[in-house]
Amino acid sequence: MHAFRSAWAAGRLHHAWLLHGPEGIGKATLAFRLARIVLGAEDMASPEGRRVSAGTHADLLVIRRGFDEKRGRPRAEIVMDDVAPIQQFLRRTAAEAGWRVVLIDGAEYLNRNAANALLKLLEEPPPKAVILMTSAAPGRLLPTIRSRCRRLGLDPLDGSTMRAVLTGQGQPDDVIARLIAEGAGAPGRAARLALDSDGAIADFVSGTLDGTVAPSAILAQSERIARQDDGFAVFTELLGARLAMSARAAGHAGDVAAAAAQARAFRAIEDLRRETERFNLDKAVAVQMAVAVATGDDQAGS
């Protein structure tokens, strides 16, 4: 925030910024705050501030994954049709603040065609325009896109700040400690994990990795998770977090082979999650596959 505001005040604002950090850390919230600086809309009660809040500011264009009405969730990718309006938006003269802002939320979801179209804009940026991108997985962006952006990394919140945020969200006192531990400093992530209100999915993940869940119970648990709203998303998020934590611990201990194995399992489960959501695959089967990947047991759930 300070780096952006300083560049703006000095009249040396870079044309593209990449805000990266863990899922749920508040990247989109920060991106909108930066957009408000450029658009003179920091006062929420001002006409400009209200237009940004309402999504009607003429000099702000927000790009994110479209919504799949049939499946009732965001589409798997940001496609060419989603980014096509950017070029026309940047060609025209700013209507209000003299500057134009494009905010791409979740830039890692850009498919190849959309990413290449964006790259052309970054290579020849128009004057008095800034592109703000958020990403929880900047490594999935084209290297040529990353190289043209100034990066702002968001660090996880500490425990006391997380407690204050979760309390403000109205989370019950008896689950806040669990959400702080599982949320890894990301309040948005903690709010999603709160959907596992009784901790059953978290217990299943722990038991699976600790070897205390009987193979015969995996099928029943996977079907329960698949039936629960957002159950699959919560399961894969918790499982991925445990694997990432194990990979870091093994790396710090000098066990390179174990760290690499845990990292491979983490990536495989991320791929499985994306493919399951993209193609609307059977989530119960996907849970069983994720368990097999995480435990190295290809027979899990069979």
TrEMBL record:
Pfam family membership, one: DNA_pol3_delta2
GO CC list: DNA polymerase III complex
InterPro entries from the UniProt entry: DNA_Rep/Repair_Clamp_Loader, P-loop_NTPase
Biological process, per Gene Ontology: DNA-templated DNA replication
Gene3D superfamilies: P-loop containing nucleotide triphosphate hydrolases
Protein origin, superkingdom: Bacteria
Protein name listed in UniProt: DNA polymerase III subunit delta
